[in-house]
Structure formats: structure tokens, C-alpha cells
């Protein structure tokens, strides 16, 4: 059986990439809701409706587990999804906990970036309240990165000015870590690194999510059942056009380079 991956768009490819590297003998399907991306500006009810529609489709593809590789969708719907479906559903969470735990310098701060939806949702707010006893966490929405990535825009001359403008008001020397709380943002790790002081750690929740997936599959005795095949769907339509498939291939190649 396959493992299902879902995202509002292409951001979840960053998580799928780590899953393929860690579990190369599994088969995968990747569902991008390209007709409705981005989810960030939408209401919670809109997001939940879109997510449940996608989940109904993915479950019909005979999957043994589903990764909601989207922080916004996780924030909006993960609890309700687990009530409805009996198969394991693994969600995403901004890496606030490891960022706080690794922060040994009480004089340093942590910057959490995500969509505006994720940042304002109760799920993340409760997590920060629980962990941030020293009040060192700052929040920054970066919706432009979602738009750039969905246009397959990775030109530094275009993206770097946007990041510089958004980070301008922060004294980055005061920060210990920056959390990439949207899977789309991980496509731009190399550009963040060019703008951040060398001591600032860049964290996302991708590897932790994949390790959790692998642990669950191991407990189910369901590891390594395939051949590494990946099937892509755009809002329920199988991607068979060579041009579209080449775009996904290039995303994997970009991640290979920036994760070296």
C-alpha cells in the first residue's frame, strides 16, 4: 500500500523529499490542491472543507497512512480528521519546541515564520503559551513565499528583496533560531541562510514528521512495501503531462542541492 501526502500546493514536496530519502522503498502519492492554493487567507471552515474533500479522495487510493504536509491544514482540521478516518494521519507542527529547547541563551530570541492562518490559530498559540516561559518567541507571516513557490519562482534577485524587506525590522543578531513553520518556506532555506547571521539556526518540522511517520509504520509492521514510486495528483487529477512532472522533478533536484 501507498503513503499519502497532502498539501495545499507544492510545499509538502519538501516533506515528501525527506520521506523518500529516509524510506526509499515505499510507494507514495502526493496530492496538491493546486486549484485552491493558498489556504492561508481562507477561513477555518473553508480550509476544513477543502481538506476533507482531499482526504476522501486520498483514502480511496488505498493508502496505509496520510501525512498532512501543511501546517495550515493541520491547524484547521487534524483533530477532526483523526475522528473521521481510521488510518494513521500525521500532521505538521512548527518546530517551536526544539527551537525553545535548543535555546541555551536566555538573551536570544526565536522567530517563528508561517502563514497568517497558522500563526493566529489556537493550536500554535497554545503551544507557544506552554513552551515560551521567557517570552522570547516572535511571529512573522511570510505569505509571499507561498506565492513565489507556487509560481516556481526561486530566483534570488526576486525572492531575496522580499525576505530582506520582511526581516528588516528585526535585529537578527538577537536571535538564536528561525522556525520555518510552512512547508513552502523550506524551499528557501538557502536564501534565509544568506540573510541570517551564522549563529542563527534554521529549523523546520519536516524531519521530525517523517521520523514520526516511520515509527508509526514500523509499529504497524508496514515498512518497505513498495519500490519508491510516486504518483502526483493536482486537486484530484492525476499528473501525467511531462511538463508538469518535470516541474516536480526539478523541485526534488532543488531540495537535493539546498539540503546537502
TrEMBL record:
Signal peptide: none annotated. It is an enzyme of class 5 (isomerase). The gene is murI. NCBIfam families: glut_race. Substrate binds at residues 7-8, 39-40, 71-72, 183-184. It catalyses: L-glutamate = D-glutamate. Its EC number is 5.1.1.3. The active site is at 70 (proton donor/acceptor), 182 (proton donor/acceptor). Pathway: Cell wall biogenesis; peptidoglycan biosynthesis. Keywords: Cell shape, Cell wall biogenesis/degradation, Isomerase, Peptidoglycan synthesis. This is Glutamate racemase.
Amino acid at each position: 500500500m501507498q503513503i499519502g501526502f497532502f498539501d495545499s500546493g507544492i510545499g509538502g514536496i519538501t516533506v515528501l523529499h525527506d520521506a523518500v530519502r529516509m524510506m526509499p522503498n515505499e510507494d507514495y502519492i502526493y496530492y496538491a490542491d493546486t486549484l485552491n492554493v493558498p489556504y492561508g487567507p481562507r477561513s477555518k471552515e473553508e480550509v476544513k472543507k477543502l481538506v476533507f474533500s482531499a482526504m476522501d479522495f486520498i483514502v480511496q487510493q488505498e493508502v496505509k497512512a496520510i501525512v498532512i504536509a501543511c501546517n495550515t491544514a493541520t491547524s484547521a482540521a487534524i483533530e477532526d480528521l483523526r475522528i473521521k478516518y481510521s488510518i494513521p494521519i500525521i500532521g505538521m507542527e512548527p518546530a517551536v519546541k526544539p527551537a525553545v529547547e535548543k535555546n541555551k541563551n536566555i538573551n536570544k530570541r526565536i522567530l517563528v515564520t508561517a502563514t497568517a492562518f497558522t500563526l493566529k490559530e489556537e493550536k500554535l498559540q497554545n503551544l507557544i503559551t506552554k513552551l515560551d516561559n521567557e517570552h522570547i518567541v516572535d511571529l512573522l507571516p511570510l505569505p509571499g513565499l507561498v506565492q513565489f513557490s507556487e509560481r516556481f519562482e526561486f530566483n534570488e534577485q526576486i525572492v531575496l528583496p522580499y525576505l530582506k524587506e520582511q526581516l528588516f525590522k528585526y535585529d537578527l543578531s538577537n536571535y538564536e533560531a528561525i522556525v520555518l513553520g510552512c512547508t513552502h518556506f523550506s524551499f528557501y532555506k538557502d536564501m534565509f541562510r544568506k540573510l541570517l547571521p551564522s549563529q542563527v539556526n534554521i529549523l523546520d518540522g519536516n524531519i521530525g514528521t517523517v521520523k514520526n511517520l516511520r515509527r508509526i509504520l514500523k509499529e504497524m509492521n508496514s515498512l518497505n512495501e513498495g519500490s519508491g514510486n510516486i504518483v502526483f495528483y493536482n486537486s484530484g487529477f492525476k499528473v501525467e503531462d511531462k511538463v508538469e512532472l518535470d516541474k516536480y522533478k526539478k523541485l526534488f533536484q532543488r531540495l537535493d542541492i539546498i539540503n546537502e
